[in-house]
Amino acid sequence: MNILQLLPDTLKKIAVVPLDKKYNSVRSNCFRVGSPALVLTATNELQIKETVKFVAYLNKIENRKIPFSVRSGGHGMMMTSVNNGGIILDISQYNHVTIEDSDKGTVRIQAGAVWGDVAQVLSPYQLAISSGDFGDTGVGGLSIFGGIGLMVRKQGLTIDHIIGARLITGTGSALWVDKEHYSDIFWGIRGGGQIGIVTEFLFEAFKIPTNSRGLQTPVVSQEIMYKVKDICCFIKKWQDWVNNSTVKLTSNLMINKNSDKYCRVNAHNLWCEQKSREATDILDKSKLLGPIEEEKTQELSYAKLVKAPHIPHTGQDKMYIKNGLVQNLSEDIISSIVHLLNSSEIMSIEIRSIGGKLNQKSNSFNAWSHRNVKWFIAIWGSVDNDKKINKLVNPLLNKLDGVYGGYSSDISSEENEKIWSPTTLIRLKKLQLKTDPQGIFTCRR
Ligand SMILES: Cc1cc2nc3c(=O)[nH]c(=O)nc-3n(C[C@H](O)[C@H](O)[C@H](O)COP(=O)(O)OP(=O)(O)OC[C@H]3O[C@@H](n4cnc5c(N)ncnc54)[C@H](O)[C@@H]3O)c2cc1C
């Protein structure tokens, strides 16, 4: 089959095939090198619709399901935005950000944008959306799963701020979904994973007023590198410090075991407002949590903090990531974390404070199933050790309350049962049948 000959004219000019010079720059995401038969680099909604119809047509004439991936930012830890032998629809050039109403904070964002670029557009309007810790992550992939951002305790999940979206179904139709239109689909696209292709989101951003020195969207960022001998004791003290702070503080730890028997703990503490006495008092206390090797505290623009470096995708990060969500870091859980750090297969363990605003929405608000959790734990290792890592982390993860779907490389159905509650899973499966009756979206969680 010559796939190029079958393509409609609207898609020919955006097609990249293996012999093209451009192929190497579009075949991969940041975790995996793909070998697709065809990549379509859409710049408008018509091309997205035509691609969906083309995939459905190919499935029909070939009488099989062709692997079909959708890629926005290419940072999906589930690695499903690339495939081998199939079609990748890349929408990264469909990336405009439009301020609809700066007073209300209403912002229309095309799904191919990356969060660092979104922050640059919003900042002059004193607006921000808490989205993630890295500017290159995509709006599309993050906004269908959750979005644990640097201001999550104060602002909640990214998906909690979506007020409408445009969806291309598996039959190539475009639907506007919000509270009044297709409210079941609107519920599902906010946390339920891939139910069709979301081409744009309408968000309600929040205000961060410019400070008296003219700094736009000012926040206080504190980075500390601790050299810790007793990691158990450190995590307990850190948990107490966060619990005794206000939700204006969100704190993330990245723990690495070193050969010298010490752990290097990289803490990133984010105060989600301009510098104040209150901020200084709380951030100063973090300096008492353990011996410090390096420390840097600065007031800067949120847009500068998450500026996107736009690193090209070459499948460079050969990582495998698992995670869990929990209400309390009990002694037992902390001991299991410490135990894992002793395994050579585990490279790093990340612990993030969540809770706060995330806990204030009901379980039925959107398709995020875990509204009572306060801590997020992610375990990082090499993709070559995926099976070993799954075995090693099970004793810890089995004690936790759930999983964040956007941060797990495990796409098994067992993992899905930890991401979504049984009732949510049933609702999502029904929605998938409704929006994609022929099952063309084969590469998804
Ligand atoms: C370095 C790094 C840092 C991260 N930090 C955070 C963080 O701080 N907080 C957080 O919550 N997450 C974080 N993540 C996880 C990341 O947000 C998710 O994995 C997210 O899915 C990536 O979205 P993407 O568009 O970049 O990825 P992609 O690889 O393009 O897509 C991921 C998945 O979503 C699907 N998809 C993409 N776009 C669409 C669309 N428009 N419509 C329907 N389906 C779509 C894809 O098919 C794929 O299955 C991080 C990931 C990395 C690699």
Please give a quick description of this structure.
By secondary structure, this protein is of the alpha+beta class.
SSE blueprint and pairings:
Layout: H1 3-6, H2 9-12, E1 15-16, H3 23-26, E2 38-41, H4 45-62, E3 68-71, E4 87-90, E5 97-101, E6 106-110, H5 115-122, E7 127-128, H6 139-143, H7 152-155, E8 162-168, E9 174-177, H8 183-189, E10 197-204, E11 206-207, E12 218-228, H9 231-243, E13 249-257, E14 263-271, H10 277-285, E15 292-301, H11 302-305, E16 319-326, H12 331-341, E17 346-353, E18 375-382, H13 386-397, H14 413-419, H15 422-435
Parallel strand pairs: 2-4, 3-4
Antiparallel strand pairs: 1-2, 5-6, 6-10, 7-11, 8-9, 8-10, 12-14, 12-15, 13-14, 13-17, 16-18, 17-18
Tell me what the structure shows.
With 445 residues, the chain is an alpha+beta fold. Among the domains are: 3-90, Uridine Diphospho-n-acetylenolpyruvylglucosamine Reductase, domain 2, CATH 3.30.43; 97-209, Uridine Diphospho-n-acetylenolpyruvylglucosamine Reductase, domain 3, CATH 3.30.465. 28% of the residues lie in helices and 25% in strands. It contains 15 helices and 18 strands. The protein has helices spanning 3-6, 9-12, 23-26, 45-62, 115-122, 139-143, 152-155, 183-189, 231-243, 277-285, 302-305, 331-341, 386-397, 413-419, 422-435; strands spanning 15-16, 38-41, 68-71, 87-90, 97-101, 106-110, 127-128, 162-168, 174-177, 197-204, 206-207, 218-228, 249-257, 263-271, 292-301, 319-326, 346-353, 375-382. The protein has a seven-stranded antiparallel sheet. Helix 9 (231-243) packs across helix 12 (331-341) and helix 12 packs antiparallel against helix 13 (386-397). It is globular and about 65 Å long. The two termini are 29 Å apart. The model has no long low-confidence stretch (mean pLDDT 97). Bound molecules: flavin-adenine dinucleotide. Flavin-adenine dinucleotide is lined by residues 29-30, 69-78, 80-81, 111, 132-134, 137-138, 140-142, 144-148, 194, 197-198, 406-407, 444.
